[in-house]
Specification:
By secondary structure, the protein is an alpha+beta fold. The protein is built from 8 helices and 9 strands. The strands form 3 sheets. Strands 1-3-2 form a 3-stranded antiparallel beta sheet. A 3-stranded antiparallel beta sheet has the order 4-5-6. The protein has a 3-stranded antiparallel beta sheet with strand order 7-9-8.
């Protein structure tokens, strides 16, 4: 996906627009670090225009599903913009604000050349992952490790349990017993899927040998990026 989109944005255009994308990335980071709604830190259109984005840039980013704007949000919430027609070429008011979508966050990382480093201190000083359940995105500092385009209940339940417990190195299997399904085998398969399809291979999940618990660890090596979003449904 991203190489194709980046091809649409020629190198000179990406360079000119990098400052605006960095502001959108910073806004996303602020909202996530404070566990608040992304719209609390939405970036105003005037700020983005001052940073180099044109109206057509914003229309293109919106049409590609990389940003969402406040007029779209108003329609989805049944607000005063509800009657506005849907269009791939929206018009924006002086009060329109923008946030990155999960795909937009990954795209902005590529354009801004943000890449995983060799140790946690180079990734924003954090050594603890963070699972954003609403965005279905697993983070390590300011790097996306994994983003789920489709629901993956077992993987998401494990990540939610780790997040709730503050990411201890090991937790008991949080998946509830299901008739006709062997719990140990299910946990083994889910661990395998957690390790697969990572955009930034910074976290390794494993069992503890008993089949009853899951362990995670930071992987302090540079590994090639895998941009393929996972499509598992388990």
């Amino acid at each position: 996906m991203y190489p194709d989109i980046l091809a649409d944005w020629s190198p000179w255009l990406a360079g000119q627009r990098q400052s605006a994308l960095e502001q959108l990335l910073a806004a996303s980071y602020y909202s996530q670090s404070l566990n608040c709604a992304p719209w609390d830190y939405a970036v105003e259109i005037e700020t983005l225009r001052a940073a180099g984005l044109t109206t057509n840039d914003l229309r293109w980013l919106s049409a590609k599903g990389l940003v969402e704007h406040s007029q779209e949000r108003g329609r989805s919430l049944g607000g005063k913009n509800r009657g506005l027609p849907s269009s791939s070429e929206p018009s924006f008011s002086p009060t329109t604000s923008f946030i990155l979508t999960p795909d937009g966050i990954a795209f902005a990382f590529h354009v801004c050349r943000v890449s995983p480093a060799s140790n946690p201190n180079d990734l924003g000083g954090s050594d603890t992952p963070r699972w954003d359940h609403a965005a279905r995105t697993l983070w390590f500092a300011d790097a996306i490790v994994k983003h789920f385009k489709l629901q993956a209940p077992n993987q998401e339940r494990i990540l939610s349990a780790l997040q709730e417990e503050g990411w201890p190195s090991c937790i008991d299997d949080p998946l509830p017993p299901t008739e006709g399904i062997e719990s140990k085998r299910r946990l083994h398969d889910t661990i395998f899927r957690l390790n697969r399809g990572q955009q930034r291979r910074l976290i390794r999940f494993s069992g503890d040998g008993s089949g009853l618990a899951i362990h995670w660890e930071y992987v302090p090596t540079r590994v090639a990026t895998d941009n393929r979003a996972t499509t598992e449904r388990v």
